Amino acid sequence: MSELPEVIARLERVETELALRRAAHQYCVAGDLRDLELWRGVWTPDAVWELSPEMVFTGIEAICETVERQWQMFPAMSHGTVNLDVDVEAATGRSDVIVHIQLQDTTWVTGGATYLDEYRRHDGAWRIARRTVTRTFNVGPIPNWGPPGER
Fold first, then answer.
1. What span, in angstroms and rounded, lies between the C-alpha atoms of 43 and 63?
2. How far apart are the C-alpha atoms of 55 and 116, rounded to whole Å?
3. Helix (H) or strand (E) holding 26
4. Range 79-87, long-range pairs (CB < 8 A, 24+ positions)
5. CA–CA distance, 137 with 83 (Å, rounded to integer)
6. Which run of H or of E encompasses 81?
7. How buried is residue 12: exposed, middle or buried, by Cβ count under 10 Å (0-12/13-18/19+)?
8. pTM > 0.90: yes or no
């Protein structure tokens, strides 16, 4: 029975790590599906979304307004989170993202960035309290992008 507290602590650590990873992935899923309810659930109410030093949005309402503007500008987006590494004790994470974005003229471009996250529990769930976007890059239009027959 002396092992039970250690097993419980290990299980709690694993559950926390999975929850932090889920928050990072749900950001991409909510953005790509344009699911505002899921998007709200990703963030703490006082969250900070720093897209660049000049573009910092604080609070869930400002963050939601910003993503809705992005959805209006880009007919489609597809994010892929890679290299996700979380620190359970510090409740922080780092990941890279590759994103394909459709422009208004239906051209697709690819870009990416590194996300630096701080997480916090809110209403019983781990959420993003701060996401800082760094190391952004863009690649030019993707030739022949689209379903066969439309190329």
1. 9
2. 15
3. helix 4-33
4. 79/27, 79/28, 79/31, 79/32, 80/28, 81/24, 81/25, 81/27, 81/28, 81/115, 84/21, 84/24, 84/25, 86/17, 86/20, 86/21, 86/24, 86/119
5. 16
6. strand 76-87
7. exposed
8. no
19-56 pLDDT per residue, tens: 999 999 999 999 999 999 999 999 999 999 999 999 99
d(CA 151, CA 126): 43
Q: What is the pLDDT of residue 63?
A: 98
Residue 98 contacts residue 115 (beta carbons within 8 Å): no
Q: How far is CA 94 from the centre of its chain?
A: 11
The phi and psi torsions of 91 (rounded to 5 degrees) equal 55, 50
Closest-CA residue to 20 (of 90, 97, 72) = 90
Q: What would the DSSP string read from start to end of 139-150?
A: EEEPTT-SSTT-
Which pair of structure tokens corresponds to residue 119? Answer: 């997480």
Distance CA 80, CA 92 (A): 19
